[in-house]
Amino acid sequence: MRTCPLIDLHPETADMAALVTDGMEQRPRQLPAWLLYDAQGSRLFEAICAQPEYTLTRVETALLEQRAPELAASLGKGVLVEFGAGSARKVAPLLRALQPPAYVPLDISADHLAAACAELQAEHPSVPVLGICCDYSRLQRLPDHPLLAGQRLLGFYPGSSLGNFTPAEARRLLGQFARLLGPGSRLLIGIDQPKPAARLEAAYDDAAGVSAAFARNLLVRLNRDLDGDFDPSAFEYQARWEAEHSRIAMALISRRRQRVRLAGRSWTFEPGEQLITEYSLKYTPEAFTALAAAAGWRPRCRWSDPAGDLSLHLLEQ
Ligand code: AVJ
């Protein structure tokens, strides 16, 4: 398979250590969600997307396929930049309908991104693909590259990944996207809506245990990359709907009192003490539109699946 250019801006280990130390000192303890996506984490996340309880990916993919011509018409011409592209499986109908001058997937997982780029480039030979490995939540501007020079930019942020951020962080991130994409840009974003607690808790704690394995893999990755000694089996996985925050909180709960070494330091977990692995916030279309407006994005069009599970928003600035 043909290889594609890939720009590597992955955070340094020292950077990661500082972020993890910060997170371990918060109460409750909480780590940045992008740490979940090492090579194994990215594979596990794809397995989550195929679980019967986790319908988000299938519903959104169907909506994108069905609406691709309208979406392309509303986006107009420009280089398509995807934030957190993962395996980049959702973009295919857009690439066919839009035929952009280039497609630029951003993702934290370098090997996963390289494989996705190669596959996509083979399937869409007429669209040059340029991968950028980075923590997109801290990317202030795109690197200089001939494929990007003088181009209008279109953002694509599917999967309700914005849900990993608190409302304040989400607003800041949307503002950062606005600056990064620049005047005249548009942003197509997929947002999961609130649903009954039982359905959401099952989606984030599937019967096959893939969601639990995904969360525990965070400890395995920290052990490897930051010289830790977590015992993943000493933590229980939990996903609970917190209606007052309109979010699922995913956490690893310490089964007993234990000391853990990590990044050259040592931490105590009390019995029942939690480490939040990620939040997944859910927004009604109205609540999301208000959040986007606060970050400088005007609504242009909006689509929903027939059951009203999620919404796709096309924003402009
Ligand atoms: C990638 C953040 C959109 O919140 O639905 C799914 C992550 N974690 N199951 C989500 C996730 C466990 C997912 N996002």
Present the secondary structure layout.
Layout: E1 6-8, H1 13-25, E2 29-30, H2 39-49, H3 56-75, E3 79-83, H4 92-98, E4 103-107, H5 110-123, E5 131-133, E6 153-157, H6 167-181, E7 186-192, H7 197-203, H8 210-225, E8 235-242, E9 247-254, E10 258-262, E11 265-269, E12 274-281, H9 285-294, E13 298-304, E14 310-316
Parallel strand pairs: 1-5, 2-12, 3-4, 3-6, 4-5, 6-7
Antiparallel strand pairs: 7-14, 8-9, 9-12, 10-11, 13-14
Helix pairs in contact: 2-8, 3-4
Question: Could you walk me through the main structural features you see in this protein, from its secondary elements to its overall organization?
Answer:
The chain has 9 helices and 14 strands. By secondary structure, the protein is of the alpha/beta class. The strands form 3 sheets. An 8-stranded mixed β-sheet has the order 1-5-4-3-6-7-14-13, with helices on both faces. Strands 2-12-9-8 form a 4-stranded mixed β-sheet. A two-stranded antiparallel ribbon has the order 10-11. A hairpin with a 4-residue loop joins strand 8 and strand 9. The protein binds N,N,N-trimethyl-histidine. N,N,N-trimethyl-histidine is lined by residues 48, 56, 159-161, 163-164, 204, 211, 214, 278, 280.
Helical/strand content category: alpha/beta
**Major sheet: size, sense and barrel closure?**
8 strands, mixed
Output the strand order for the largest sheet: 1-5-4-3-6-7-14-13
Principal-axis shape: globular
What's the Cα radius of gyration?
19 Å
In this entry the ligands are: N,N,N-trimethyl-histidine
| Helix content percent band | 25-40%
What is the chains' assembly state? single chain
The strand count comes to: 14
Which stretches of 5+ consecutive residues score pLDDT under 50? none
DSSP helical segment count: 9
Order of helices and strands: EHEHHEHEHEEHEHHEEEEEHEE
What gap, in angstroms, lies between the N and C termini?
A: 38 Å
